[in-house]
Amino acid sequence: MSSDQDQLKETDTEARFEFKKEEKSAFEAEKGLTEETIRVISEDKDEPEWMLERRLRALRQFQEMPMPTDWPGQPDLSEVEIDEIVPYIRPDIDTRGGVDDWEDLPDEIQDTFDKLGIPEAEKNALSGVGAQYESEIVYQNMQERWEEKGVIFCDMDRAVQEHEEKVKEYFMTKAVPPSDNKFAALHGAIWSGGSFVYIPEDTTVNMPVQAYFRMNSDGMGQFEHTLIIAEENSEVHYIEGCSAPKYSEFNLHSGGVEVFVGEGAHVQYSTVQNWSKNTYNLNTKRAIAEKDATMEWVSGSMGSKATMLYPSTILKGPGATDNHITIAMAGEGQDIDTGAKVYHNAPNTKSTIESKSIAKDGGRTNYRGLVHISDGAEDSSTSVECDALMFDNESTSDTMPYMEIEESKVDVAHEATVGKIGDEDVFYLQSRGLDDDDAKQMIVAGFIEPITEELPIEYAVELNRLIELEMEGSLG
Amino acid sequence: MSVLQETISEETVRELSEARDEPDWLLETRLDALEALDDVDFPDVIRTPGRMWTNLADLDYESMVDPFSQTETKEWEADEGIDVLPFHEAVEHEESLVRDAFGSVVDPETNHLTALSTALFTTGTVVYVPEGVDAEDVTIRTTMNGRSLFNYTLVVTEQSASVTILERQDSGEDLDGARYYSGLTEIVGGENAYVQYGSLQDLDQTTYNYQLKEADIDTYGTVDFIDVNIGSRLTKASVESHLNGDSSESKMVGAFYGHEDQHFDIDARVWHNAEHTTADLVTRGVIDDEARSVYEGVQNVGAGAWDTNSYQRENTLMLSDESEADASPKLIINNHDTEASHSATVGQVDQQDLFYMTSRGVDERLARNMLVEGFYVPVLEEIEVEELREDLTERVRERLQSRD
């Protein structure tokens, strides 16, 4: 733990730190999150009273809860500038997360956009420059088809107005209460934007619902809330985020995701995050799976300075299933601490967790996961597999699984391996005519294939391309 | 804050030290440890959201720790050619050896309970194996008679020395109320030396037990641990190897059998601090009735540890539905030239195996008991000391036979 902290400290000189402190004191009066700010946000959105009440309660919880600092080996969060948050969340202050001009973006981000071949308009939108990404037509087409089936897919703020009863019942009441952790409480107080997805009984949405197009309808979507309700025997695949880097001047992203998987329903939630490397990415994602339901999490974490993300599933009904596939890649200065949490609370429940991580150029990856099998959840099984690949001696790769087994009629297995990229594999590929870089890229592409094959083709292609870009720097 | 301010003071420690005619440096070490009680935390225990796997801070130390009632019966057996001495005899005859090694592997100020142990220990053993000497079957038997006992063991091996040790603890006559046993073991593994340190903890089930065993291992050296936990009400036992020399090795084997309301918190940790080092961690445990087991295994590979091999396996067998098994095998890898893996499983006696045996005419209860005994084979195979192998088998068999 101390070595990680030392490493992070080294990236910030004493002088810079001093400078920041001075700057803070000069603007003291405007800093800090207050009840008044929350009221302004809520009023601007014309929210019902109950939502304001929930925000205020979450704010109080946020203020009371201590910063999480005692997790073994956790990323250093001391530079999360919560006091700087106000200008980025207040609708009456005209400073959003993005920059005003494309040229103001850091070079490395401009560069990545160019290399990924992302269109100009989209570049602007994704980078938060302010232009809206015009995908309305695609979106409209999808929407009409869904509406016929009674499917709802809309902006979370709109859902509060138009689907109030459902939102009131499910929003941060059952899956992610604000009291869960300090950042869930913060999220509960200042959330904005995100998606609301409702799939009626016996309905299958046979194309992925992509939040990609909507990401920028409200500022940077740094505190977006996603609520997915899949009724009995329905099926949906929801995709959020994208592999293009997202830049914000404010360094905290704290989203919330709640998924309700009804009896016999099937939900897949896929996300690839590539926040710019100044961002602290601290999310709370949780699903509740009823009888015979299936929840699948597919997560890729490429960006951010530090990520703490552990999508969790509560297997509440007998026969429920959870699958996790996670991939993490950490380069210079990055600390990607991700994993999974599964609670087996009913008999015959099943979970599988597959984690792949790549650490290079002094980056750190950590798999941190918890599997809990409650007393009475008999005939349940869980299998966890973690594989880590290390490129060099500056990097760190940790694995920290926790298993709590209160039931004896279970099958619990955990396996993990860590190794370097195989010299023999590289040699073989070189002997077939590939150069060193291409050989290593191909090995990495093969290593992460279990995740790319779960994604729609355009995402998979983009993800692979992105990893190539990330590796170019390291292999040079 | 020390939990024991009412019971122990500087005077207590001075009195213990004076009664044993200790040199000043030892008294100073004890007093430093006493002072550190206020500053150091209890041993690390795992926490997950809403749960603490073992609660050491809230034990009633006041009622269990009685510094002046420490009484025990001790037996030593050893070959010719090496020194196996009661601690205070060693301080008298081999003062410089003890002084150099004492606290060099286990820092007395590691945590609250090591500091307490250093301040209050009254008995112990020093095993010294000179260069090139091959010593087999050192046996140290301790029977605890009082309310509390603080024990200390130091093993020093010179270059190319070799020794096999069994250290065991059990309890004498019954006492009303809870008891406390604390044991620290330091092993200095010399260059190209070999140590197998086996331990059998068979204390009565009113005893709260804290043990920390640590080894520093030099170039080409090997220190293997066999850590067997059968007794006690609650145990927190850590076995730790520091692979400090190139090509050093450590095998860390653990076995436990918990029943009734026993609670075992077992840690195995290895630090790869040099090149070409190898570690193999194997733990097998059975839990029955309302017993609870907690296991943490940590493989820590340092940035300079090129060409590391590190393996860890932990398997827990649950015989009862009221029991609980928690496990956390961890990898901390800072050098990419590493082959590391770990695995952990929790489950019941394999139903197919059971079916096969009953189909061959073996009574179901007997079949299950045979499978449980067989579960320990990977541990038994590693044990070089016959007494430990036999006693582990015997204790497992007794517990199985006492089941309905």
TrEMBL record, chain A:
Annotated ranges, domain SUF system FeS cluster assembly SufBD N-terminal: 139-210
Family: Belongs to the iron-sulfur cluster assembly SufBD family.
Domain spans labelled SUF system FeS cluster assembly SufBD core: 213-447
Coiled-coil residues: none
Protein name: Fe-S cluster assembly protein SufB
Organism name: Haloglomus irregulare
Signal peptide positions (record): none
Entry superkingdom: Archaea
InterPro entries on file: Fe-S_cluster_assembly_SufBD, SUF_FeS_clus_asmbl_SufB, SUF_FeS_clus_asmbl_SufBD_core, SUF_FeS_clus_asmbl_SufBD_sf, SufBD_N
Gene Ontology annotations of biological process type: iron-sulfur cluster assembly
Automatic annotation (TrEMBL), chain B:
Domain SUF system FeS cluster assembly SufBD core: 144-375
Residue ranges annotated for the SUF system FeS cluster assembly SufBD N-terminal domain, each copy included: 64-136
Pfam families reported in the protein's UniProt record: SUFBD_core, SufBD_N
Gene Ontology biological-process annotations: iron-sulfur cluster assembly
Residue ranges of the TM segments: none
SUPFAM superfamilies according to UniProt: Stabilizer of iron transporter SufD
Family (UniProt): Belongs to the iron-sulfur cluster assembly SufBD family.
Protein name per Swiss-Prot or TrEMBL: Fe-S cluster assembly protein SufD
Gene: sufD
